[in-house]
Amino acid sequence: MYTGKFTFYILSENRKTEEILSEISPLEDCEYSFRTVSTLDCPLEVDCAVIADGAEAVISAEKKYKPARLAAIVPASALTEFDGGILNSADDLWIMPDDDIYNEALLMSYFGRLAGAMKESFDYRRLRICFDTAFDSIPDLVWFKDTVGSHLKVNNGFCNAVEKTKEQIYKRGHYYIWDIPKEEYDQGEYVCLESEDVVMQARKTCLFDEKVKTKHGMGQFKTYKSPLIDENGEILGTCGIAHDVTDLHNIHRELMVVLESMPFGVIIEDREGKVVSTNKKLCEMFPGVSAITGQYYREWKAQKLKGIKPYIHGGEEISLTIGGKSITLWLREIPMQSIFGEGIGHIVMFSDITSEQEYAKQTMHRANTDFLTGLNNRRSLFSYLNRCAGEKTLTLITIDLDNFKKVNDSYGHHMGDEALIATSQRLLQSFPDDFIARLGGDEFLVVISGEVTLGQAEEKVQDFLDLLKAVYDEREEFRIMTASAGISQSILEGDGRHDVEKILRESDEALYRAKNSGKDKLCVYGKIMRT
Q1: For residue 522, what are the CA distances in angstroms to 403, 447, 448, 512, 515?
Q2: 3-state secondary structure of 103
Q3: Its pTM surpasses 0.90
Q4: For 27, phi and psi rounded to 5 degrees?
Q5: Residue 70: helix, strand or coil by DSSP?
Q6: Would you say 224 and 207 are in contact if contact means Cβ atoms under 8 Å apart?
């Protein structure tokens, strides 16, 4: 592709010159072809030369063929036969001795200079083709300017951007090229010229963020500008490459609008682990957090975020006190990947779940609590019994109100509700450290999950029954009421778990015995009933 193929036409009546020159080895990346002819047909190809051998051949070649390059082999004595015009039309004069017109050394020397000049021209044309092709293949804007800012050469990308041809742009300035009105020329043009002055003074490549007003609106460019310096160190002008980042800036702004509108805090971490962006919501959660841009996210997290634990929905849960207020955050670190699947950082999101957790706690509390009395309900009872089934000693006390239905029937359900509330209050007073549940209606259950003897349990229950009787006696509506209780106890001999269902049945059986024995009584399972 880059081999120079040169044809040399030798105008001569003999092949002596061709025979001598054919022995010369071609220059690197070159091929030579020699053809001795008496006449030539026009036109001649670009990479060729005519070697006119003798005075007559020189005159013939000059007058008829006008080849791309003409070399004239003439004896010294024959120079007087040519006028100045013919001499000037020859690119090379190969002056030979009169007595040795085919001197090999001289012919080879002359030919070497001719071939070298042709190769130099060939290399220049190929280089120009490569440069222009690459120049116009670059989608960015590329240009060359002189020292006063006139455009000398631009690429197709530049022409497409300004919607003008290269001929229209040649030696024109910024305001004309970008269609800026004359009254705005000073401000827009000087911005561009100032950056070029900086480049020429610095004598090195510089990067600029430049805003350019076009007929389609404002454009944002990343511009690299370099000085053009000749072999003597003189500044010839500048060259520049501008990448239009307007769309990227618009996308960035759109992204920031989205980030700022999000109801949770956001940190964007790059592939090196540094914070590149945060949003306002994060600053509300962590006052002063905007100052972490450029810092390593993991270091900030280790220093500022304590008490991190796994969250049920993935991610991490963080409890903080900010401004005297306790909040709970849900932290998620979402990896970002390039189009090639490579990790390029993380999006870190902080969601305030304080309200959700409080609501969840309230919901759980309502689900496990008796609405009227505020005590635990049957659902929470079985959950609690399963949790403490491995305790050494487990004591259950079932309590049922006597004549409660008569109070409801005589005074109404609201009075019955008051009786239940009063009973619950006395249960909390008598068993402050134990689990208390309302099983439904007028039935309650107390769980003692600790080291307590049956005697101690009986004494506590009897004190409660006595206290409750005294409370009932204070109100006429409640005086017909008493309470009965049944106690059961299980003690583990070794490792294992209590049979919760069995203890519950035994406690119910003890209560049943107490109720059937006249009420207002206490009965312990497996013992003679105590009245």
Answers
A1: 16, 16, 17, 10, 9
A2: coil
A3: no
A4: -65, 165
A5: strand
A6: yes
